[in-house]
TrEMBL record:
Family to which this protein belongs: Belongs to the HyuE racemase family.
Pfam families: Asp_Glu_race
The organism's place on the tree of life at top rank: Bacteria
Alphabetical list of PANTHER family matching this protein: PROTEIN DCG1
Name of the protein described by the UniProt record: Aspartate/glutamate racemase family protein
């Protein structure tokens, strides 16, 4: 079995982690792969500011730093911000797959214009950054929010009757008013709404988390990984320092709990 590490971007216990693990049921990966979910040791409460993004990059790098030595064949990052992806690609030779950029690139295979459906407006900076890096601003028809603060642990559980109709109403505005031909769920925390939405809409709806699992499988099947010409290895690695900061941060959070 080839092990794949899925890095969950918030510290959490087993019950909350199980809601993230449920994404695996949305995609047929075939035999030979084994997915392991690992929450970060430290990190921000949410991804809503530049302060949060700096912590997010570090926390995901800390969680995946030793993935290759631990026997993992690929890493998937469970956040549309793509936090830590570039950092891990610089220190790992195995594929590192993040959902933000790959959802946008897949959308271009399925249609001309796409919209991003999100929970709240503070997430816009995440997509704006990735669209700029890819030079795809002109391909994004819109980013629309339902104005509901996300819960990164319980996800949409218990809020389906409130949230699902809002997502559907907003999705239809993306299609009818903005001209979207493909929709992207703006967070892996929204995966519980995917099937419900997809069955009620006439355009493809991309579920970003399961997409990363499939892309990791494809990369392994084809023997491909990221280019070190794009993500070069550090000249003076500071792995021990990263581990020490992560350990100290985790201890600090434990003391405050």
């Amino acid at each position: 079995m080839k092990k794949v590490l899925v890095i969950v971007p918030f510290p959490m216990g087993e019950e909350d982690l199980a809601r993230r693990q449920a994404q695996i049921g949305a995609v047929d990966l075939g035999p030979g792969l084994e997915f392991h979910y690992r929450p970060v040791r430290v990190g921000p409460k949410n991804y809503s500011s530049q302060h949060d993004m700096a912590l997010a990059d570090f926390s995901i790098m800390d969680a995946g730093l030793d993935a290759q030595e631990e026997g993992f064949y690929a890493v998937c990052i469970d956040t549309m911000s793509d936090s830590g992806m570039a950092m891990l690609r610089s220190v790992l030779d195995i594929p590192v797959i993040a959902p933000g950029r790959h959802s946008m690139l897949l959308a271009q295979m399925l249609g001309e214009k796409f919209s991003i459906l999100m929970m709240w407006d503070r997430w816009k900076m995440l997509y704006t950054k990735t669209l700029g890096e890819l030079g795809m601003e002109h391909k994004c028809a819109s980013m629309r929010s339902i104005g509901v603060t996300p819960d990164n642990k319980s996800l949409l559980s218990g809020k389906e009757d409130q949230v699902f109709p809002l997502l559907l109403e907003t999705a239809r505005k993306c299609i009818d008013q903005d001209g979207a031909q493909v929709l992207i769920l703006g967070s892996t925390t929204m995966h519980e709404a995917h099937d419900w939405l997809a069955s009620r809409l006439d355009v493809p709806v991309i579920n970003p988390g399961p997409l990363t699992y499939k892309l990791a499988s494809v990369a392994l099947d084809l023997g491909l990984t990221h280019s070190k010409a794009t993500w070069p290895a550090p000249l003076a690695p500071k792995h021990d320092m990263i581990r020490a900061i992560g350990t100290a941060g985790a201890a600090f959070l434990e003391d405050r709990a």
